[in-house]
Amino acid sequence: MYVWTPADEESRQLTAAGGADGLITDTPGPARRWVDTNCRTGHRAGPRGH
Prior knowledge:
two-stranded parallel ribbon; 12% strand; globular; alpha+beta
């Protein structure tokens, strides 16, 4: 399951707690930093690591 535009901290936490496989966002920098800090996937999403 992918979710669209969890742009704030609370939304990202709910997304992760809900078991989402990925997210689509218009704020990729902050979202990437949040994922790198808070999610332990062992790999980066997407074919180009984005």
